[in-house]
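Quick one:
INPUT:
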């Protein structure tokens, strides 16, 4: 079972807002492109997102279905990859001070992926998760910056460097 975590320097609410926006799925999930909701209201249970995966000259159409959702805390997904089978992916959000610890946990469920599951596959999943969590962090941090009032970032940076209001 491939488990990886990353501290994302935004609130859990900001991370959840990105996960709950089905139109942004391809921005943070490695290997996907052109994602779009295809069924239900993402991220409600049984809703689905369709997307394409490009492997060299081949383009595969896949979908991910929500199997579990505890709003703001955990999203349980089943990724369907055609002949390769399905995988269970859980994304858990934990408050970590004012930031968010995201834990990604993935395991093959059915098909070829489950039959061929071994240490080598685990290593590949770990690499994919590292990239996926880095992309998720980037998307979340960009969203947080975009939501800040104008001039807030400069004020925050000045405070961090001790400018404006030091001791006499």
């Amino acid at each position: 079972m491939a488990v990886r975590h990353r501290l994302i320097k935004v609130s859990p609410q900001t991370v959840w807002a990105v996960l709950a926006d089905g139109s942004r799925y391809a921005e943070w999930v490695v290997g996907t492109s052109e994602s779009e909701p295809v069924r239900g209201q993402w991220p409600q249970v049984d809703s689905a997102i369709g997307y394409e995966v490009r492997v060299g000259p081949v383009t595969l159409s896949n979908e991910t279905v929500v199997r579990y959702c505890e709003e703001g805390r955990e999203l349980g997904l089943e990724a369907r990859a055609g002949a390769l089978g399905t995988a269970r992916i859980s994304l858990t959000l934990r408050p970590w001070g004012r930031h968010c610890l995201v834990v990604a946990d993935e395991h093959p469920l059915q098909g070829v992926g489950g039959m061929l599951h071994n240490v080598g596959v685990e290593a590949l999943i770990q690499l994919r998760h590292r990239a996926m969590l880095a992309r998720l962090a980037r998307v979340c941090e960009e969203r947080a910056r975009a939501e800040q009032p104008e001039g807030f970032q400069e004020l925050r940076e000045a405070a961090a460097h001790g400018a404006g209001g030091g001791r006499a």
